[in-house]
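Dissemination and training. As part of the outreach component of the grant, students in the summer workshop were shown how a complex can be specified as a set of sequence lines and then modelled as a single object. The example used during the hands-on session is reproduced here so that future cohorts can follow it. Participants entered these lines:
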Amino acid sequence: MERPLVKRPLIKRKTLDRIGLLFAALVMVSPVVLFFLWMISLSLKYEIDNGAYPPILIPENFAWSNYVQVFRENNFFLYFWNSVLVTGAATLLALIIGVPAGYGIARLKAEKAAIVIMIARMTPGLSFLIPLFLLFQWLNLLGTLWPQIIIHLVVTVPIVVWIMIGYFETTPMELEEAASIDGATPWQVFRLVALPIAKPGIVVAFILALIFSWNNFVFGIVLASRTTRTLPVAVYNMLSFEQVSWGPLAAAALIVTLPVLVLTLFAQKQIVAGLTAGAVKGG
Amino acid sequence: MASVSIETARTETDNKRSKPSRLAPNYWPFVVPALIVIGAVIVFPWVFTLWMSVNSWTLGQEQTFAGLDNYIRLATDFRFWESLWHTLIFTVLAVAAPLFLGTLAALIFDAQFPLRGFLRGVFVMPMMATPVAIALVWTMMFHPQLGVLNYLLSLVGIGPQEWIYNRYSVIPSLVLVETWQWTPLIMLIVLGGLASLPREPYESAEIDGANAWQKFRYLTLPMIAPFLMIGVIIRAIDAIKSFDIIYAMTQGGPGTASETINIYLYNTAFSYYDIGYGSAMAVVFFVIIVALSLVLMMVRARTNWSDMETR
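and obtained this result:
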């Protein structure tokens, strides 16, 4: 029959296409892979190897001591803990406040509240910083972690509210209506009916709030003192003051961003869903 | 549908506002805590900044009402106009480059090939990485003598560059980092657009003998235009506000060659502690961002003839 004659070249072309696409994708991804490989390489090399020309990708001796040095000489345990506290508190508070708010706004169809969130997204972080810096100074809070926890809410609350509005708009109303006809209070409806269905949305909001709070730098450089630095500020300070040696610097940079990168790899699906939903809605 | 009638019922009871009915549960208690927090950390700073901007106040000195003096000073401040120009160049480049590369990446990742999911995951990583940490490593890579980038250039026969250490190449170098980090966002947005495209036009185009470029130019591009516009809006808002990477890598230098409005604003408020002037700058900056967003949204409303709003 004629059929196989037609089909075989088609299959061949398809495999060729796929190999071509794979190759194109590898080219697209290569700057990412090369960058992170080089970052790891820098962090595992002694000063001599980092200064070598031509550059060395894989050294003969790994300088694990760079990592030891970061923790021992630069108080990184403290700064790591500060980051955990600030990001953890700001994210949890944002969920406690933001999830019900997203529910309320979605059910009220309060478009204006959504606009406030949108404008908050446009406002440069620095313009929040001037007034709040003065407020914290006046309240005598500088030197504690509270100013950073509070100001990180500027980042986390809009993310959570925004994602939850979008999520609750898509969850079905019928169950909630049935529950309230059966005499459940709005709070009971929210807690027992709406909240359990919304879990995937909450996970997305949680992850994104966590990442953007963890990565935040600008609030920390103004509000953090020597003992209240978060990791991004600590790594920046290493650059400007304490040393110019590349190995430990790269090690510190990797320590700062590793938790986020691991989270990105494991929660890729949620992050993609959250960012595209937020982005598409954002227009 | 049932929900329609319930909705009308709800708006009616809302209008009366007399007693909470069963069909219209009171949702305000859910929103109030967030309103208080947003009022405290977002709205209060807006109002306070506006108030500070009509005052003359350097931290540690007497505060006096200054009317529009700060704004007049801003209009005649050469350094401000220069930073505005830097911001403009940076923003245009940091939107255009990711837009082009992100669309290209989306077209690739929209197709089927081995390892697609994994590679897409890797591609998204820069966007989530901590900007300061990234900036630090790029700074080492840009080093004129020891940096790996000049070595890579030498392999293809290009002479050493000064990257962020030269006043002419500093902004393009920063854009390179920004592009590396934010191309994935455009890719994700466009990928979402590509996934929503109908199949039929492509089938009829194939029957008509259209080639790949024609299909892209006359079918794909017009249909994903609204998504591209969303990408442009979001990227533009983020790029114009970019701070972490610029501050960590150059602090606006060499000299003031890469000082954008945001960096100048930071220096004014937190290096010179000129709170009044810094606030005026923040207000003007905010107005610029909102104006830019409105213009882009108007452009988008014009291109938005597809039915994506119904999703």
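Chain A has a mean pLDDT of 86. Students were then asked to discuss how this feature might be tested experimentally.
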